[in-house]
Amino acid sequence: MLFLSFLLYFSFIVDAQPINNKLGRIIVSPNGHYLQYEDGTPFFWLGDTAWELFHRLKLEDISRYLDNREAKGFNVIQAVALAEMDGLTRPNQYGDLPLLNQNPATPNEKYFRLVDTVVRMAQTRGLYIGLLPTWGDKVTKAWGAGPVVFNEDNAYKYGLWIAGRYKNANNILWILGGDRPAVNDSSDWRPVWRAMAKGILDATGNCAFITYHPSGGSFSTSQYIHNESWLTMNMIQSGHGGGHDAATWDLISRDFKLQPVKPVLDAEINYEDHPVNPWPKWDPATGYYRSYDVRKQMYRSVFAGACGVTYGHHAVWQFYNPQEEKINYPDRYWTEALDRPGAYQAGYFRKLMSSRPLLGRIPDDRLIINGQGEKGEHSSAFRDNSGRYLMVYLPVGKTITVITNCINSKQISVSWFNPRNGKISKSGKIKRWNQMQFTSPTQGVGNDWVLLIDDIAAKFESN
């Protein structure tokens, strides 16, 4: 195994072949709310957080991880070039630091050859890399290891350099920020991020997709940088500290309505198997977020108007293993976490969303006139702008009353999608009334369902 590891490492050190694109560029849809390929094909962002990917794994494990995520249906892997966990002072698994003398002006070629290889590995699997040039503690420490090494001048140069390196890689989606605010009561770091974004845009001929990963809670990119010309998409992080059922749907809805219109995404919902609100000290009685918590946040953020969602597992983002210290109480190693229920269920979700036209979605909770509920029972709905279908997510199985006159035909097909196993229960074709009552196949907490109502003239998977 040591010899194989050496061969793999040597292969990417000497491999100077240019990146061969097999994926199309991602752009914003014409209505400004969603994402698509350049040819107009819809793109539903299903991300996974692999923050420490370049820092804590060797190539054989990276290959295992990417294979697993490809098989489950993920299409965006969020990873950090200058990692959070002592990323400037602790080398990667091949003994290389990313910067020489912790200086952004002197990146270490050997370290970034690993990143090159992972970008190519992702391409061959149809995966995009949501690439953070740096974690936020290298711009503003606030908390974490740091050190702060960026200013406006070297941020521009580093952005220019790293984007120049990957300017021909269509599967790079740039993410600035790294879990830090752009502004607080005493400081404004926007000039530094603005300079880094300018470097990226200058290197790519203004063709880069750039977003920003903010800190958790009610903060979003929309508060401080929505109007920045370089920002392609708003992001929120509903996160892990707000307890169960943080109102991600309200945060998404807020940003969905902003002008100018930009897509919005919850890029860090509560991680599967993450302790509930472990700060400043975790009470084990509060337990962990499990797959049910993950599903509720995924569905309600997207049904509120998000262009996709990012799943995460608490052991996977940090690639926790016997050689690493625990960060916030993971309850298993990353290799044991790859096949947790929530990861499969995220893939089922993408398949559901891709089974219908994506770019004309209109979030509309007013469709639910009885049974919407609050907090953990809050249901979300959206409709198609052409009247072909609507969907309602019920986090708790129950009876609801729905306005259905937004569907074109007087004959509708009614189905129930099970988010737990990805299966559809068909209820058949019935006459449509303006308001109709529906009861989910099972009821109660833990029995979440998606109600699908289709125009019979539209040929979808549930028909």
UniProtKB/TrEMBL annotation:
Pfam families: Apiosidase, Collagen_bind_2
Domain Putative collagen-binding: 362-454
SUPFAM superfamilies reported in the protein's UniProt record: (Trans)glycosidases
Domain Apiosidase-like catalytic, chain residue ranges per copy: 29-358
InterPro entries: Apiosidase-like_cat_dom, Collagen-bd_put, GH
Gene3D superfamilies from the UniProt entry: Glycosidases
Protein's UniProt name: DUF4038 domain-containing protein
Species: Hufsiella arboris
